[in-house]
Amino acid sequence: MFLTLMVAPYPQEAEAGPSQGSEGLQKATFAGGCFWCMEKPFESLEGVISVTSGYTGGTTKDPTYETYADGGHLEAVEIVYDPEK
């Protein structure tokens, strides 16, 4: 299966989350179609701390699974990982 992925790394200090206070961890967001299909492959990778599904882009505040496409959002996963592993 081929997925087109967009990567947007975020510095650790950008926002609170699983990496807050964890020296050296990084975040990356991938939008590549159905987030349910993207979770499992990332969860099996060494160094991945957490995988969180959600939406990226768009104009709707707090989109839901039923409304995300109407607001121009994409399904995405946020990966918190240790780049040393």
Q: What key phrases describe this protein's structure?
A:
single chain, 85 residues, mainly beta, Peptide Methionine Sulfoxide Reductase, Chain A, 3-stranded antiparallel β-sheet, 3 strands, elongated, disordered N terminus
Walk me through this protein's architecture.
The protein is mainly β. It has one helix spanning 35-43, and strands at 26-30, 48-57, 73-81. The protein has a single domain (12-81), classed as Peptide Methionine Sulfoxide Reductase, Chain A (2-Layer Sandwich), CATH 3.30.1060.10. Helix content is 11%, strand content 28%. A three-stranded antiparallel sheet has the order 1-3-2, with helices on one face. The radius of gyration is 13 Å and the shape is elongated. Mean pLDDT is 76; it is low at 1-21.
